Fold each of these.
Amino acid sequence: MRITLLILGMLLFAGLGSFAAISYHSSEPELTTSYLYPEQRKLSPFQLTDQHGEVFNNDRLKGKWSLIFIGYTSCPDVCPTTMAKLAAAYQKLASTMDIQVVFVSVDPARDTQAKLLDYINFFNSDFVAVTASHASLLPLTRQLGFVYAMVGDGQNYQVDHSASMVLISPEGRRYATIKPKARELGQLPQITTTNLIADITELNQHYQR
């Protein structure tokens, strides 16, 4: 009798363990090009200036999703391509969730307020474009996992920068990163509009659970 009870207990324990494993696995979002941070950390205090000359700080991240991308208005390829994809994705995302797109210029010397306003209006006037001195930009970009560096001399320098995006939760926490991926070996990594929409939608649904 004791042996039978022991076997039944072991089977029950194994079954519960399997159920827990399945439940945990099913609770994880199915993502194509994104990484969900296991620990969502709040951003340290920061202060930038937007295209209207208004302060952009931690408070403006609260109560809505924020999709952040860094670049500069003179960028010849990555920035305009990414901004066009964001403009296309935003139309669908904004219909199902409260989200803002934030373009952070890491070229404050050339990207004036007027230039940022013209640049962002070309893609979508609902987007936010911000910048600040490097002293303010560097701590923020590092928190977000971005890197950038000036390359070249004179006024025609370029800025090497991350091509990924970061999704900030309505609590102002770093929630996920969206990274470019190559479809095939040898191809240039990129974030497709379809995958961008699918992943952010999935992350939003996961957040609501």
Amino acid sequence: MHEEKLPNPWKGVPGFWARVNQVLYPFAGPAEVGIGRPEAPYRPPADPMCPLCGARMADHRIDRGDASTPTHLHCPTGPMGSERAA
């Protein structure tokens, strides 16, 4: 059976690691992505539940952080009635 050869994307690319990849590409080939079978598109749940307290996520308050502050998830009723940091 004839296997179709893929063109080597590293040919002509300058640099040491490009040369290493050019040699290894015929053996390793391109990255294999996916799970190996057709997959249905992701459909988010209509009413997601909190993994920490089990309440609806719509009842939570999320304080989004930035590069220097963390994001905080405030559960309406936690296991100990406390606030959790996400």
Amino acid sequence: MSNPNESVTGPRDRAALAQLVGEALAHAHAQGDAGSESEDAAEVRAITDAMVRLLAGAPLRSDGKLTIVSLAAEAGLRRNKLTHKHTGLKDLFYALAKARDPLPESLSVSARARAAKQQQDLARVRAERDDLRAQCQLLARIVQVLEIEMHQLKETNAALQGQVAARASVPDLTRWRRS
């Protein structure tokens, strides 16, 4: 038997669900267009057929990734048809894709171990990235403080040079009395 924590539906069940939903939506669109299949119904049918192929892992016209770009390419439509017109199908696709098991049952133990190590490596690299970002922000603050201090020192230096120049123009009268 299967583990109770695992998903009950497999990729084929999700593909079948996508096909059923797509057929219902296409039928609903076709009913609104008095007999002939409307453009919307054809788009819905193309999108759901593409969803079935992608969820089943058998793409024909795309890279097979579970993204809207791949779904649009698989359906032979422009992406904006999914992001603006058929948003319900887009949401359904995301929900079905998210419901997929992160690691299929068919993966071997070594593949699972490799995937777990990659997840750990990814977490480590992300932590390093966050640490480097924090260090970079700290260094930027230090540079700003040093720039302000340098500007203040330049102003002080200019003022001191002005005072020295003013003193240099005043003759030293003590030298004249001795002679």
Amino acid sequence: MSAQPEYTPAPPPAPAPSAAAQLLVRIRADRRADTWVPAFERDWAKALEDSRHSYSLTPLHDVVRVWQARLAAAPAVDTFIASGMDDSDGIALEDALGARP
């Protein structure tokens, strides 16, 4: 007998169609915009190409979710860095959020 769950976990809800545009506005307003805007645009372009090949919107949704999480975590990261605490034992963002699409 296999140990399969009795239910399939529901996937996270899809972001709104305008989520990427709204996210880009928020990224441009951030003090890190000089580095984050090109990074977001690079991630978005790669996800768009992946979506074209796979006929799936999942790569685009993943980019939006990762960047929403990054923006949500930014104030806590700023506070931590400003506190002067030792961050030498930190972990990579990919380890905390999962692999990037």
